[in-house]
Design a protein that fits this description.
alpha+beta; four-stranded parallel β-sheet; about 25% helix; eleven-stranded antiparallel β-sheet; about 300 residues; 7 helices; about 35% strand
Length: about 300
């Protein structure tokens, strides 16, 4: 049976950021004979629905929700080797994986792509942290980046990207935590760094479209490891200016490495988050699983998105 006529399961998260305003979209899904709508209220619900869909011979899962729901689906599909295609219908507030996949952010247009679009291989990150193991679709973060963003407007976040906690609240410079970490890239000898932030990127954006890893690709078999080093207030101001005006990856306070795996340890507690969900603390190892999932891409001409 071709995909056009096979059953497609839509996992609908009613608590996702914009789902309440997308009632018409839910109605559209409910009457489409190609689709089966399944509401999920938790990570466990979503993963069980995927198991049920695989058992019934379904070939594609559409995740209608935010990055958290997408992350639950990616973890279930990868860890259980489910032979299902994944499509992302962005209904969250961040939708960062959808952005890297060039999916339309208009839900109606995105649904058309989710149903009829072609799937292609996508890498995932395997996270092995103190609390356990998980698969991650878009990005792992740690450090100061999430500590002060609630103080800023959306415009400031977009303008100043991963350094937005410095812009407009420079007094917090006295309160930044500096993390002493060791990184072993691709099993090489560990290197020591004093960092404010770190990002382990499969996709390009985090925090709702903030470009953190401009050179990252979802299908190159590599993760982009970006470390933001500690510096003086003047050096940090220069870093934020470089983000706006040039390529901040070349700044002297930025360490940018591409690797297949990285092991990270820290002298103090260093919690990791993945696509908005808490992962666990260091020590941790992150490894790329090349082409682990078949994922629907959007129509934009970004073949290596």
């Amino acid at each position: 049976m071709s995909l056009q006529h096979a059953q497609i399961v839509v996992l609908w998260n009613p608590s996702a950021g914009t789902s309440a305003s997308a009632a018409h979209l839910r109605d559209r899904i409910a009457v489409d004979q190609r689709l089966q709508l399944v509401e999920t209220s938790s990570r466990d619900d979503a993963q069980q629905a995927i198991r049920d869909a695989a058992g019934r011979g379904c070939r594609r899962i559409i995740v209608a929700g935010g990055d958290g729901t997408v992350g639950a689906a990616v973890d279930a599909l990868t860890s259980e080797n489910r032979d299902l295609e994944l499509a992302v219908l962005p209904l969250g507030t961040g939708n960062d994986l959808a952005r890297s996949l060039a999916m339309p952010l208009d839900p109606d247009a995105a649904l058309d792509v989710c149903i009829a679009g072609a799937a292609a291989p996508m890498d995932v990150l395997h996270a092995d942290v103190s609390e356990g193991r998980r698969y991650v679709a878009n990005m792992v973060t740690a450090g100061n980046s999430g500590r002060y963003t609630h103080l800023l407007t959306d415009e400031q976040k977009q303008a100043w990207g991963p350094f937005c906690y410095l812009r407009g609240v420079l007094d917090v410079l006295q309160d930044l935590t500096v993390y002493d970490i060791a990184c072993s890239f691709d099993d090489q000898p560990a290197e020591q760094f004093r960092v404010l932030n770190l990002f382990l990127a499969n996709g390009r954006t985090s925090g709702g479209g903030v470009t953190v890893a401009p050179e990252a690709s979802l299908d190159d078999g590599l993760l982009d490891c970006i470390l933001i080093l500690d510096g003086t207030p003047l050096e940090l101001a220069s870093l934020t200016a470089d983000y706006v005006m040039t390529s901040f990856l070349n700044n002297e306070l930025v360490v940018w490495r591409r690797c297949r795996s990285v092991r990270i340890s820290a002298l103090q507690s260093l919690p990791f988050s993945a696509d908005g969900d808490v992962l666990g603390d260091a020590p941790a190892t992150f490894t790329v699983r090349p082409g682990a999932l078949q994922v629907v891409r959007g129509p934009a001409p970004t073949a290596s998105a």
